[in-house]
Amino acid sequence: MKIGYLKNLGRHELEKGASRWRALHKNEKVILESVSYDELEKKIQNNELDAVLVNSRHTIYRRLATYPVDEVSLVVLVQAGNFNKYQQTVEMSDLKNLPCIMVAGVEEEKSEYHYLKGVLQVDSDLLAVKTLGEAVLMVESGSGYLIMNEKTAAHIDDDQVQKLFLLRDGKQCTEEYAFIAKEDQRVEELSKILKEVIN
Hints:
11 strands; alpha/beta
């Protein structure tokens, strides 16, 4: 089974889910491949991928099924020292004077821009970088902030970076994880496995 994932989501939980799948289905390999948002539907329709793990983009796929996995909280990575070190949360409006760092190659900029501005309604200017490593360096230097889901952010261990849960009007910001695929019993089973891994 070939599973795609948006690289901004990371693959840590997906690898755990894939290894649990392999333990249950001894004869079946699971191949994980990073994919850009704009090509995922085509890759599924052409049978290059069986499913893709995405975050909520409010896109309607007319010919594909959605298999919900989980809802995860969003966190903001900021330069340590910009906020009280005991602070746990930050309002989106408190970040509007700081650029929001967008991790995207040229081909992904349009969909990432739509996600940050259209779905998350980020008020800040956007600053595009190609890799997560570059983005973290920019956060360390105080050049901007980075929005990530809490699962992926947990793998960034850096004492120059502070992680704060993102709020909008006092309400925790979240995003949904789901697999996009053709109707497929195997993908439904994998989504249940991944739900257990994440929780």
